[in-house]
Amino acid sequence: MKYVDIRGLHISKFTLGTAQLGMDYGIANKSGKPDEAKSLSILQTAVDGGVSSFDTSMHYGDSEAVIGNFLSSCRSGLRDPVLTTKFTVAPGDYLSDKEIEKQIYEFVENSLQRLKIKKIPVYMLHNPQDMTMYGKIVPAALRKLKREGMIGMAAVSAYTSEEVDEMLRDDIYEAIQIPMNIIDRRLIKKGSLKRLYEADKIVFARSLYLQGLFFMDPSLLAGNLKDAEEPLRKLAALADKEGMSIAQLALSHIRDIKEVTSLVIGAETPGQAEDNIRLMEGPPISEKTKYEINNQFGDIPIHILNPGLWKR
Question: Is residue 310, in this structure, part of any structural domain at all?
């Protein structure tokens, strides 16, 4: 496993996404939420493979509690894990600054209790609009939490180049999570990834397999996802030409982008976690295939790239 040392953290290039451990997640998920024994086995498999970074959220069912139970046991053998958890300010009419701050503190305290830790290494806004929706109170509360040692750093889960630019305006945000995959090149084309790298921000890339869409039979897609049939066939053809699986092609492409710190990848079974650890050690793709990726996936419709717009 490769690691990146940045902003005082030792982060594995593979971050285990744990939404699947707390709820049913992903268009290609056939097994549903694993039971606790299987969840603990997934986590142990990741740790045994060198994973030191885990992504969760207060919104992912009981994912935080599962991680907390695992890390607090002697079985993990993991020291100084990089835990990222997320929160969203609960909207309400005429919330005062004091009420918003109190709410954020309660979220932090609850996450600390569930994760069974004293400090959250990376505390992330799940909704990027929270950076500005409540004026200056959210970043002010995050600064206070950092001064008091309850969080290590603040971060944002973003979607668009405009949200990346907003994040870069305030130095309280030291890390970001963004959607990136072999057909979703929006933030590369707009220069957002380059600006994040130049600002020395930690970049977590999510949606590597577009929630499993890459592994579905293109002929079986329905609704507006029918428009993904041609890109998926092109992807399969490129993988075949490169002599790689679709998973290896998709992973190697994002893994080897220097501006990306770590890849957030989920797993429904220990076997999937093992597969992704193995893929992390796989070969790079050829320059010719990189060129074809740039040419063939330059203008994919947003309703394919954004799962929130999928109509099946």
Answer: no
Amino acid identity at 209:
Y
CATH number at residue 91: 3.20.20.100
Using one digit for the tens of pLDDT, what is the confidence trace for 169-223? 999 999 999 999 999 999 999 999 999 999 999 999 999 999 899 999 999 999 9
Percentage of residues of the chain with pLDDT beyond 90? 85
What three-state secondary structure class fits 288? helix
Q: How many domains does the chain have?
A: 1
- Residue 157, domain extent: 3-217+257-284
CA dist., res. 121 & res. 152, Å (int): 4
Find the helix or strand (DSSP H, E) in which 68 lies. helix 63-72
Determine, yes or no, domain membership for 299.
no
